[in-house]
Design brief:
heterodimer; A: 121 residues; 11 strands; 50% strand; B: 108 residues; mainly beta; 9 strands
């Protein structure tokens, strides 16, 4: 069974940093691109970042570019999202998601259960 | 940036057919995927590559894509189909993934 388990969320003040992690199991991790997708309370889905199978091609939504950094450790089967200069509008449930292919251009399946990030003073 | 437009809500009686649209410029040339999200749960893929269903998804769910509109059709709607539905494409111009705003399906 493919499983994605996020961790690292919590309450953080505006301007501070936070690091999210995603532990993957049940599939050949280094064969697939991965993504972070977020959902603000009561709102829709927003793609945040994608990374290809070996980590040498990454991309970000305009809303987080320059503040967030995505990375992966294929040996540990893990995905990370380093979030700097956090803003109140970054408050959301952050999902770790597996892409259908090696480059981050496919469909998303499956999704983790998410980790909640709350940015507030 | 590329924009996908969905109606905020669709209401349908049990046993009837629900059609959820997803509009975008030249969307017929893009590959569209659809997700179902029930309250308090993570999204689940229900249609990929516009018309294909993952294993475990009922045949009642089907998709189409032509012109400026992609459509997710739910035939014989059941109470358990009540959820939010999102369309998604990869935009080659921006190299970004894009979601529609979501459609809440209510079963009357």
């Amino acid at each position: 069974e493919v499983l994605l388990v996020e961790s690292g969320g919590g309450l953080v003040q505006p301007g501070r940093s936070l690091r999210l992690s995603c532990a993957a199991s049940g599939f050949t991790f280094n064969h697939y691109a991965m993504h972070w997708v977020r959902q603000a309370p009561g709102k829709g889905l927003e793609w945040v970042s994608g990374i290809n199978w070996n980590g040498d091609n990454v991309d970000y939504a305009d809303s987080v570019k320059g503040r967030f950094t995505v990375s992966r450790d294929n040996a540990k089967k893990s995905l990370s999202l380093h979030m700097n200069s956090l803003k109140v509008e970054d408050t959301a449930l952050y999902y770790c998601v597996k892409d259908s292919g090696m480059i981050p251009r496919g469909w998303f399946d499956p999704w983790g259960q998410g980790t909640l990030v709350t940015v507030s003073s | 940036s590329y924009v996908l437009t969905q109606p905020p809500s669709v209401s349908v009686a049990p046993g009837q057919t629900a059609r959820i649209t997803c509009g975008g410029v030249n969307i017929g040339s893009k590959t569209v995927h659809w997700y179902q999200q029930k309250p308090g749960q993570a999204p689940v893929l229900v249609v990929y590559d516009a018309t294909d269903r993952p294993s475990g998804i009922p045949e009642r769910f089907s998709g189409s894509n032509s012109g400026a509109t992609a459509t997710l059709t739910i035939s014989g709607v059941e109470a358990g189909d009540e959820a939010d539905y999102y369309c998604q494409v990869w935009d080659s111009d921006s190299d970004h993934q894009v979601f529609g705003g979501g459609t809440k399906v209510t079963v009357l």
